[in-house]
Predict the 3D structure of the following.
Amino acid sequence: QKEVEQDPGPLSVPEGAIVSLNCTYSNSAFQYFMWYRQYSRKGPELLMYTYSSGNKEDGRFTAQVDKSSKYISLFIRDSQPSDSATYLCAITRYQKVTFGIGTKLQVIP
Amino acid sequence: DGGITQSPKYLFRKEGQNVTLSCEQNLNHDAMYWYRQDPGQGLRLIYYSQIVNDFQKGDIAEGYSVSREKKESFPLTVTSAQKNPTAFYLCATQGVIGQPLGADTQYFGPGTRLTVL
C-alpha cells in the first residue's frame, strides 16, 4: 500500500463548478499536509499547507484535513479555466515529504 | 529575488552522450533533491543531498550521478547508461514552514525538459 494515494484523474468540470480533490494516507504519524499546483511544463508551486484537522481557507481554496479518516481534501470554489493544472498532495512526517501522484484538473469555459 | 533556478529549460541529447542539468538555489536550504516526472507516474526521486559533500541514492538512481560541492548547487548528470532519459526533471530544496510547529516542505525549480534524439 502506498503511503499517499491520489486519483490521477483527469477531472473535467465546467467553469464555476466547485471542485473537490482528495488524498488518503496510511500513516497516522504524518504531521503536515500540503497542496501543490503544477501547470503544464512548470515546477510545482506550494498552494496551501495545514497541520491540524479541520478547514483552512485562502480565497477560493479550502484545505480540509480529517485525521481520524486519514483523508485530506482541496476544494476550489467558482473554478476558473486558469485553475486547470495538476494538483499534488504532499504529507510530511518528521523530515520526510511524501507526494501523491497528482490529479489533473481541466476547467472548461 | 530568492528561489531555485534550473538550466537549461530544454535540452536535447544524442544517444550515448552524457548531459548535465544545473540547479542553483539562494534559499540557504541545506537539503536538495532531484526528481524525474513522467506522465502518469508522479514524482520519482533520483538523488538527494542533505549537506555539502554528501548525497544519497533515491529510488531510480541508476544511470544518473550528482555532486554537491557547494550549498547553492546540486548538478545532475544523465549518463549514457540511463536507458530512457527523456523526461521532465525537477530540482527541489527542503525548508521549514509553519508556526509554531514547523515542518518540512519542498520548493521546486521550474524544471528541465530533456529529450533524447
Remarks:
- The two ends of chain B are 35 Å apart (CA to CA).
